[in-house]
Amino acid sequence: MRRAFTIMEVNLAILIMAGGILAMVSLYSLGYRENRQSREDVAGAAIADAVMSPIAMGCSATNLKWSVFRNIGNYPGDRGWAEYFNGSTGLVEKNPQSTAEQAFSGIMGALSNAAEGQFDVKTQFPSSAVSGTGMKCGLVVLHEKDSPIVKIAFRATRQPGMLLSMPMYYTEVRFQGDPNK
Predict the structure, then answer these.
(1) What is the pTM of this model?
(2) Above 80 in pLDDT, residue 1?
(3) Considering the domain boundaries, does residue 1 fall inside one?
(4) Mean pLDDT of 115-136
């Protein structure tokens, strides 16, 4: 008598192997998505550092006068993140990058004028950090008049319409100068 597998045993083995292979193949798309998201998160953090650090440095300079610090405004405007919405459609504008660059130039320009040459303030948006990444940025600087704290928030994404759903990088800067000046 010969020993062999029956057709049922072979079919059952193929079914079990097919299920295992399909499970492994489905993990590839999940891994790809997580890898892409990880790269975007790292790029966003690097860009946030390049954009937020000069603002924090300028706002926390010890030779910044209180009379100047107390009048730092809101950038890109008083509505905060709502400044990135298109008023007619209610959606995030197609290129939030230009609004972020205007906000950066506005706050850094105000700090540069206040510095009166006492410390180096670069008013140019750090485009080199963004170039080649395909990321679009959003930047909001909020400051209540006479408050000793400036709030800086930043977001970055590859899909401009998703800007407000991306992780936010946030820091607060406290006045470090002489309050009597």
Answers:
(1) 0.79
(2) no
(3) no
(4) 77
